[in-house]
Target: Zinc-type alcohol dehydrogenase-like protein
Amino acid sequence: MKAIGLTRYLPISNPESLVDIELDKPVPTGRDLLVKVEAIAVNPVDTKVRAPKDKVEDTPRVLGWDAAGVVEAVGPDVTLFKAGDPVYYAGDITRQGANSEFHLIDERIVGAKPKSLDFTHAAALPLTTIIAWEAMFDRLNISAEGRDAGKSVLIIGGAGGVGSIGIQLAKRVAKLQVIATALRPESAKWAEDLGADRIVNHFGDIPQQMKDIGFPQVDYVLIFNDTDVHFPAAAVIKPQGGICTIVENAKPLPVELLKQKSGAFHWEWMYTRSMFQTPDMIEQHKLLSEVARLIDAGAIRTTLGRDLGKINAQNLREAHRLLEEGRAIGKLVLTGF
Model:
């Protein structure tokens, strides 16, 4: 089968950083699905895993943690899906990724593809949706049934992949007042179109800007971009509020900002359940199924920003380059081999 992989971790400008390869078609066992991949999306985690380092792989490593496709075959213990079912999912970072014609994935972290979306638009959703959903509803315990309606959230990185779905979930599912950060006019418009009530400058004095727009404090802060730079924005949290970040820090964080307010601090890592085979792994299947229902009902929409064409090494390198430059709005997707 066709795939895109690497054996060396190189700068994306090097044509050997991601190459077209041929691999054996895998066979499903246990609770695995064998999925015929129709579309993939690319995320910052792909670029971070591929980032230059001295390690050399003995066999090609395949990246990719966002996919939509059709179940080709199932393992003997599968109960949730059957051959022919259209699915979408974000994968498991401990296994080979989805940048291949066929891919093995545990059914418990797979959802039925939204009926109203084609594979291209569906592939844009899984990873960012899981992250945003878990950050809000699992880590910060915001009600997914609207019981926290009217409370406020600051979403840092509103026009990125996670921010794009996070704004929608916060506004249309949790019924919160949403303030999002953006830098360029086109980023701000994207965030507003998704439901953000107010926009503040991504690299400005966020606490001062929040005061200027009438939100000196908020109930929740979601950091979806550069924790080291943006953690001081936690100063805008209300007493007994909560902050959640998805980006690893490179230096110590000033968590003392939260002490007098008894503020809660959470990490969100969407691979926790699959990496540690937690008893509640199936929660990702449930949340992807619920998001598919919301999409088909017209409550939220895909976050596709740009379709870069066929799934091959050249187009995948371009997606990595755009992400590393930090100029992507929404999600970057590739469709078909």
Remarks:
- The mean pLDDT is 96.
- Residues 125 and 302 are 6 Å apart (CA to CA).
